[in-house]
Amino acid sequence: MQAVYTPAHLAHDITVETFMGVPIPANEVAERAEKIRMALEADGGFDFLGPSEHGEDPITAVHDPGLVRFLEVAWSELRRQALGRPFLTADTYPNRNMFEGMSPEAVAALVREPQQAAGRAGYWGLDSAAPLVAGTYGAARAAVDVALTTVDLVLGGARAAYGLCRPPGHHSARSMYGGYCFFNNAAIAAEAIVRATGERVAILDVDYHHGNGTQQIFWNRGDVRYVSIHADPDRAYPYFLGRADEVGEGAGRGENLNIPLRGGATNEDYLAAADRALEAILEAPGSVIVVSLGFDTYGLDPIGDFALTTEVYHEVGRRTAATGRRLVVLQEGGYHRPSLGENARAWLRGAEGRDFDPLPSTGFGEHGVVAG
Ligand code: SP5
Ligand code: ZN
Questions:
Q1: 167: CA distance to ligand 1 center in Å?
Q2: Distance 233 CA to ligand 1 centre (A)
Q3: What is the pLDDT of residues 152-183, one digit of tens each?
Q4: 177 lines ligand 1 (CB under 6 A)
Q5: Tens-digit pLDDT profile for residues 314-369
Q6: C-alpha pair distances (Å), 289 with each of 101, 159, 165, 316, 346
Q7: Residue numbers annotated as active site
Q8: Please, are residues 125 and 33 in contact by the beta-carbon 8 Å criterion?
């Protein structure tokens, strides 16, 4: 299988994030993508290529140009304020209750993007856990190019191709970044496929978290079906979207399927959910599935609470490919670094109909090899 990768992600070199106001070691670190690259290289069955530049138009096809401009200048704006911060997060977010009693028209007319970086980050941002550093914009642009190059491979005839996107994308909405995500790589890819083929596209999101950004972007669209398996937002980020009764509106009514799972969800629970998800995808026409691939569903993931093991990734990859649709597989989350490479290898080998044997040389170190 062809895999698209660029070292440009290394410039998004974050070390610290904040969780409930407290600095903690960052989860979404550069080592994640390097672990995956090294495991796929060791496998020998993956051909790597770099992304080609696709410019800004495919980004503004799904994102507000104001978000793009903010992300481009946010770091220099912060520098101008000379606060000496290692990364940018917001001071104040516009909680919707700030505007209670005001009409939507009044809010649109009166509420504006502020000038200072701490306010602008609140205007465009979802949460305080998505640190922005000097190299973030370049890395996020490169991740979009990785996604679009993966699309090119599949539209050029590949049955499946993998884009090692970093930073990830699925929490990023039309006019909002957050959740370690800046541009929505999967949504940009899906939109590019719709525009290139005129076909309907399905997105299968198997990251542990609900892809609120992807859901928002296609909420009222009849041409992109979004299907997501994730932790119930009653207990997990992004908390305010991801419930089963969110089905889309207008032309998009019935095109959004959320499958929230309980804490401790097992391989068996997961495969049942995956079958439901794939069935829903096959109910609508189309020849391509964009997969938002996350491994934060893994049993040892530091921010997830599912109980999955490596072999379920091989099986979900296999079942997804068995739909007969072509696959644009794009990396989202997954934060247990010792297992990321093996889990990616398992999923992608499954998607190619190949068997999976764990590589002893990439066992899980101090955690021991986790048996299925
Ligand atoms: C792409 C992706 O997976 N984004 C995830 C964003 C999650 N942001 C909130 C992280 C909260 C970290 N919580 C640590 C508590 C561990 N019990
Ligand atoms: Zn996630």
A1: 14
A2: 12
A3: 999 999 999 999 999 999 999 999 999 999 99
A4: no
A5: 999 999 999 999 999 999 999 999 999 999 999 999 999 999 987 765 555 444 44
A6: 42, 11, 17, 14, 19
A7: 171
A8: no
